[in-house]
Amino acid sequence: MNILARRAIAKPLVPGWTIPFEIATLFYRKQFNHAFSLPSMVQGRAYFDSLYTIAEPTLPVRIQASTAQEPRGHWFIPEVSSGSKTMLYFHGGGYAFYPTVSRHFIALLAHKLQIRIFAPDYRLTPEHAHPAQQEDALAAYGYLLERGAPPTEIVLAGDSAGGHLVLMTLVSLRQAGLPQPALALALSPWTDIGRRGASQFGHDRYDMVQGYQTLQYGQWLKGSGEWSDTQLSPIAQDLRKLAPIYIQAGGKEILVDMIRDFARQAKNQGAPVRLDVWPDMTHEFHAHGSTLQQSEQALTALLAAIQWTEGRVFDSIKETELSGLDSVFNKAQPEIIKPE
Fold first, then answer.
1. Name one Pfam family in it (predicted).
2. Catalytic residue among 82, 102, 160, 233
3. At residue 244, what are phi and psi to the nearest 5 degrees?
4. Which terminus of the chain faces fewer neighbouring Cβ atoms within 10 Å, N or C?
5. Bridge partners, 89 (sequence order)
6. pLDDT, tens digit, 9 for 90 and up, residues 72-82
7. From CA 228, how far away is CA 166, in angstroms rounded?
8. Active site residue 160
């Protein structure tokens, strides 16, 4: 009622927000806050799964549980697929949640991006601290290689904490002497598990995820081990000789400042990186699918990025090659950081 009353006098929380988008953002903020207030993680996860919204409920995507010979997870197989790529997708949820709504989002991506997706059920915190998630990510990537997928046919992707896992996995692959994937897609990625940037708390009033939650997620990730924020933050890693990284973020999300810092750091190290920021959007705005113009733009850009990799071999990336996506990305009028 407060939202509608404010709208009646032409005062949306953010100019340009639609009523459904504003309602959904505040609804999920309430869901997260209440889940955090419950006495156990089991109760928090059950509550978060008890009530949720989805943008496009009927999708032509078959969801299939992995077999006993595969890492635990699910395949999302769209009715229509183009190209030969396979996506390895790491879900978000602060490493602590894997809500049902996340599975709907992965199905949405499989449909919109016309790509087969394997999403592993990596171990969650606080029950399993680092390096459990990284071990599970590497095992899933290794499995795709073992079953015959060449690295040039693998797209690594994830949102929020899953975006964190994408970036850390790229580094771990290089350290392990394993080949890089064709492309890495990071949607609203968590790039510093400590404190970084004014938006981390300054954008609490806009975003569904809150600053205090990121610090708790960081503590759960570190567990009782002697891990530091620096050791577990993508922004503090050596980012050289990685796959091309395409990042999308919302200008009103709490993570946007640390995401910008990461993109600059990657660029300064010579990594092939591109960041597009939709100014009025919040964390993981992509989940609104066709119901929101900015979401549709972002999904179209992700599809273009995947199509851009078709038939290419990324043994030596030239920074100028990334400019091939300009004609598509610029339609969204995002903020861009890319190699010059």
1. Abhydrolase_3
2. 160
3. -55, 135
4. N
5. 157
6. 999 999 998 88
7. 19
8. yes
